[in-house]
Amino acid sequence: MGTIVLVRHGESLWNREQRFTGWTDVELTPLGVKQASHAGKAIADAGLRFDAVVTSSLRRASDSQGHILAMTPMPEQLRCIVDWRLNERHYGALTGMGRAEAEIIYGTATVHHWRRGYTSRPPPMNAAQARRLVGKLSAPSRKEIPFIPRTESLQDTFHRVAPCWRDTIAPLLRVGRCVLVTAHGNSLRMLIAAIHGTDPAAFCAMDVPNATPLVYRLDSKLRIRNALELPTGADGRTSLIL
């Protein structure tokens, strides 16, 4: 039985300001650090011990992973994978814009359609902006990215997340490994769709809160046996979601 634990990063600076972040490499807030540590404690309390960890190339995910691992038992050898395909959905020209500002400029219904529609893309940023954005990522991450996106739909996001699931994560689960994945709201929505093997459009509006561990147990054929959300507060309850 393989186990995968999915955790969205803790609160970032732009989460707090309600700005579209996308591929901008912003840091965690102090609350975000605390949230990630609480997630790590919840994971440790559940008795989970990781064989491998996977994160996006953005620091809010990798830093969250570090805070989680600081609270959990560490094996002698831990496989660590950084994969740009788990990066947040690229928000194009909305990047850096506050949600309220975007709704004033484009209309509330249009912005909602861009955020939660499966095939809809926000307006693209220009090529120079896109190059600058990617240029601020770490050098190893830049080398792995085969193209520079200027905007993405959730469908585009699924088309890069699904191969990460198939080629990198699923083989570990088939042989019974326990894997931690720290990523982002939209990339995790699409990863969850890949895990379920169903229509990704059905997951576009799924709630993925910051730093709340979601645990799936799968058999060797990657069939879901159970899924639960771990508590990170003081009530000690778990929520069985499947």
Helix content: 25-40%
Order of the strands making up the biggest sheet: 3-2-4-1-5-6-7
Label the structural class: alpha/beta
The profile of the biggest β sheet is: 7 strands, mixed
> Total number of helical segments?
9
CATH architecture title: 3-Layer(aba) Sandwich
For the secondary structure, the number of strands is 7
Distance between the termini: 16 Å
Give the overall pLDDT as a whole number: 93
Shape: globular
CATH superfamily: Phosphoglycerate mutase-like
What do we call the CATH topology?
Rossmann fold
What's the number of structural domains?
1
H and E order: EHHEHEHHHHHEHEEE
Organism: Pandoraea eparura
Function: Catalyzes the interconversion of 2-phosphoglycerate and 3-phosphoglycerate.
Enzyme class: isomerase
Catalytic activity: (2R)-2-phosphoglycerate = (2R)-3-phosphoglycerate
Structure, described:
This protein is an alpha/beta fold. It has a single domain (2-240), classed as Phosphoglycerate mutase-like (Rossmann fold). 40% of the residues lie in helices and 14% in strands. It has a seven-stranded mixed beta sheet with strand order 3-2-4-1-5-6-7. Helix 2 (30-45) packs across helix 3 (59-69), helix 4 (99-106) crosses helix 5 and helix 8 packs across helix 9. The protein is globular and about 50 Å long.
